[in-house]
Amino acid sequence: MKGKKTISLNHFVFREFFRAALIPLLVIEFALVLLYFWINSYNNAKAVETLERESISHLKGIVDDQSSILSHELASITAIAQILQNQTTFFFNHQDFFPLPSADRPQFAFAQNGIFYQINNYGGTSLFYSCRTPISSVERKKAERSAALDPIFKDVYKANKNIVAVYLNTFDLMNRYYPFIDNVYKQFTPDMNNVLEFNFYYLADDKHNPNRTPVWTETYLDPAGQGWMMSCI
Questions:
Q1: Distance in angstroms (rounded) separating the CA atoms of residues 166 and 84
Q2: Three-state secondary-structure class, residue 175
Q3: From first to last of its 233 residues, what are the pLDDT tens digits of the chain?
Q4: Positive or negative CA dihedral for 61, 65, 68, 70?
Q5: Best CA proximity match to 193, nearest among 184, 203, 204, 206
Q6: Residues near 179 by beta carbon (within 8 Å), at least 6 away in sequence
Q7: 166 near 81, Cβ under 8 Å?
Q8: Angle 20-25-29 (CA atoms, 0-180°, nearest 5)?
């Protein structure tokens, strides 16, 4: 008929097939592809979440273990420090019980900056007196006889790998330090002449620690050149 477009049978069949079959198939395929990527994304998110949860759990366990180890190490050093405290207290209460050593007797001199220090190293401790302290026979006797503490200082130093130094600071600005420091008057800056102002002294003095229990300092830079450290005092 005139005015009407003739459609071939093949074209009609393809059109109907496209409507009835291909479009739904394409929609289904597209939905499956989206579903595939969504499932992958979901599984990946869940896997990451699981790994994070397990990692945090393992990390907590590791931190707890390391904290326990650190606590035991600190407790060990604290116990050793108490032994050192007892021995040092006994020495100062009974100085006359400790005769001057017949061999390897400590020898002393004054440095140009006024520090009184031990000049000979026989494998024990070094010693210095601040230039603020007048040196009389009393201070000389104390400097000599306190060398009796060398064996306990050395034993404490060897008792734990985390102990890098053992030292004694007294109210009259005397310092004994192990391992020995050569030319100790050069090692310490002038402000060390009043050691009572440093945290590794005053945190354990009568005012701040009347019970004389072990006290841990915060981390500080060691004036003796050992780097960053904490002290049990």
A1: 9
A2: strand
A3: 455 555 566 666 666 665 666 677 777 777 888 888 888 888 888 888 888 888 887 888 888 888 888 889 999 999 999 999 999 999 999 988 877 666 678 999 999 888 999 999 988 999 999 988 999 999 999 999 999 999 999 999 999 999 999 999 999 999 999 999 998 988 877 656 788 888 999 999 999 999 999 999 999 888 888 889 999 99
A4: negative
A5: 184
A6: 157, 165
A7: no
A8: 165
The burial class, CB within 10 Å (0-12 / 13-18 / 19+), for 121 is: middle
Q: What amino acid occupies position 157?
A: Y
In this structure, what token pair is assigned to residue 183?
């030319």
Tokens of 131: 């230039």
pTM of the model: 0.71
